[in-house]
Amino acid sequence: MANAVRAALVQANWTGDKESMIKAHEEYAREAAAQGAHAVCFQELFYGPYFCQVQDTQFYSYAESVPGPTTERFRALARELGMVMCSPCTSRSSRACSTTPPR
After folding, report:
1. pLDDT above 70 (res 85)
2. Is 41 inside any structural domain?
3. Strand 39-42 versus strand 7-10 pairing type
4. Which among 21, 84, 23, 24 has a CA at the least distance from the CA of 47?
5. Residues in contact with 29: Cβ distance below 8 Å, sequence separation at least 6, in sequence order
6. Closest residue by Cα to residue 13 from 41, 50, 40, 39
7. Which of 20, 66, 86, 101 could pair with 15 in a Cys bridge, judged by C-beta atoms 3.0 to 4.6 Å apart?
């Protein structure tokens, strides 16, 4: 099993605000790492409501530059936990939002 990669997939309910979603996903990542995961993948738009269900202009402000505050926050967490994170977010650019710790 030395070549095995253990991954965690997270699907969560919308809590109603961005910060509580981010904090919840930080805890999910810590829990996954504690259970031996090498990678964790969060659901699409993990820190906001899914746009197909909630179409409200108030959530346009959730879009961030990449790198930006959320990707930097999760990059630091990925480095701390020694894991790869796929943290899809609403981006103001065409860059991907995956977070991988530097080698």
Report:
1. yes
2. yes
3. parallel
4. 21
5. 8, 40, 74, 77, 78, 81, 83, 85
6. 50
7. 20
Is position 27 within any domain?
yes
The pair of three-digit structure tokens given for residue 96, joined into one six-digit string: 């991907």
* Full domain range(s) for residue 36: 7-99
Rounded CA gap, 103 and 88, in Å?
21
How many whole angstroms separate alpha carbon 101 and alpha carbon 84?
A: 7
| Total domains, the chain | 1
pTM: 0.80
Other C-beta atoms closer than 10 Å to the C-beta of 70 total 24
Q: What is the DSSP string of 4-42?
A: ---EEEE-----SSHHHHHHHHHHHHHHHHHTT-SEEEE
Number of residues that make up the chain: 103
User: What band does 102 get if pLDDT is binned at 50, 70 and 90?
Assistant: very low
Q: Which residues pair with 9 in a beta bridge?
A: 41
In a domain, 81, yes or no: yes
